[in-house]
């Protein structure tokens, strides 16, 4: 029996909507990462982009458990001396909740060309409105 290798013509990319209202950040991010990679499909191949598009709405209403809101920090460094920037999750949720979800999902996909292509299929919006109605996205429940 031959191994099935999905071709570009065989792959069908669906659109999913995930409502983040009241959901836990990590659990939502893992579900989004699975859909983006295509691991929920029987035609999954680790070296081919078989995943779907994911639209996350109500990012401002995401929840975190424990003391993560106050304790978890995101770091970035400019490369220059004294160039370390620190931002606490609580502050990031207040002014850029979309970024919190994007960073959580980015941590769960491969850091290579395929991962960057997969990551581009993630769309995150602060409120309930999104401009992707023409793609007829299905609601994903988990």
Q: Can you characterise this structure?
A:
The protein has a 4-stranded parallel beta sheet, covered by helices on one side. A two-stranded antiparallel sheet has the order 3-4. Strand 3 (73-77) and strand 4 form a beta hairpin. Helix 1 (25-37) crosses helix 4 (97-106) and helix 3 (89-95) crosses helix 4. The radius of gyration is 17 Å and the shape is globular. The chain has helices spanning 25-37, 68-71, 89-95, 97-106, 113-119; strands at 15-19, 53-57, 73-77, 84-88, 122-124, 138-139. With 142 residues, the protein is an alpha/beta fold.
Rg from C-alpha positions? 17 Å
Structural class: alpha/beta
Helix content: 25-40%
Distance linking N and C termini: 35 Å
> Globular, elongated, flat, extended or rod-shaped: what is the shape?
globular
**Extended strand count:** 6
Fraction of residues in β-strands = 15-25%
Q: Output the helix-strand order.
A: EHEHEEHHHEE
Short description:
By secondary structure, the chain is an alpha/beta fold. 29% of the residues lie in helices and 18% in strands.
Layout of strands and helices, then pairs:
Elements: E1 15-19, H1 25-37, E2 53-57, H2 68-71, E3 73-77, E4 84-88, H3 89-95, H4 97-106, H5 113-119, E5 122-124, E6 138-139
Q: Top keywords for this entry?
A:
single chain; 142 residues; alpha/beta
């Amino acid at each position: 029996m031959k191994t099935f290798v999905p071709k570009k013509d065989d792959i069908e990319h669906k659109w999913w909507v995930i409502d983040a209202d009241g959901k836990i950040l990590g659990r939502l991010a893992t579900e989004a990462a699975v859909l983006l990679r295509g691991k929920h499909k029987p035609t999954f191949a680790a070296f081919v982009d078989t995943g779907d598009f994911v639209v996350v709405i109500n990012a401002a209403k995401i929840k975190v458990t424990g003391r993560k809101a106050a304790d978890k920090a995101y770091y970035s460094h400019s490369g220059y001396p004294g160039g370390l920037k620190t931002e606490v999750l609580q502050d990031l949720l207040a002014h850029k909740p979309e970024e919190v979800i994007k960073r959580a999902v980015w941590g769960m996909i491969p850091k290579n060309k395929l991962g960057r292509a997969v990551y581009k299929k993630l769309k995150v919006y602060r409120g309930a409105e999104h401009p992707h109605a023409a793609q007829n996205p299905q609601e994903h429940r988990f």
